Amino acid sequence: MTAIFATIDITAVQQSLQNAMTDAAVSISPADIETLEQFYIFREQTEVLEFLDKHPFLVPVLLEAPEKIRHYFPDSQLFLEVFIDPESIDWVQLILSILMKLDPHEAVARLNKLDWDWGLHNSYDVRSNFFTTLEYPDEF
Fold first, then answer.
1. Do 62 and 40 meet the contact criterion of CB atoms below 8 Å apart?
2. How far is CA 93 from the centre of its chain?
3. How far apart, in whole angstroms, are the C-alpha atoms of residue 59 and residue 33?
């Protein structure tokens, strides 16, 4: 019977694991962050980016959303914020607010159409962690 011995470079293994953990921790590219900042106004930017870091599957949806939204709300501003339900701290969602000046009935009809044409086609994970709402300016 022949015994086979192998030497393992522990330092190399540790470095490889460290690199893998570092790569896994970075889920949003700087380019995506820059693009999102062009599309949206972040309310509490750190919270939004931390939420997206935990839910990176939302990034492609957020990159696609402005084009979809502009079809229904062409002159709107878009905001992102993290909402923590005060009654259930485990219920946290990312809110995309559409700031516009439409008649409320028209605005809700357009939001419903947007949801029907685009929002409902998103995955369950997206729909359970993200929603779109309407917002009016203070002077409306």
1. yes
2. 9
3. 9
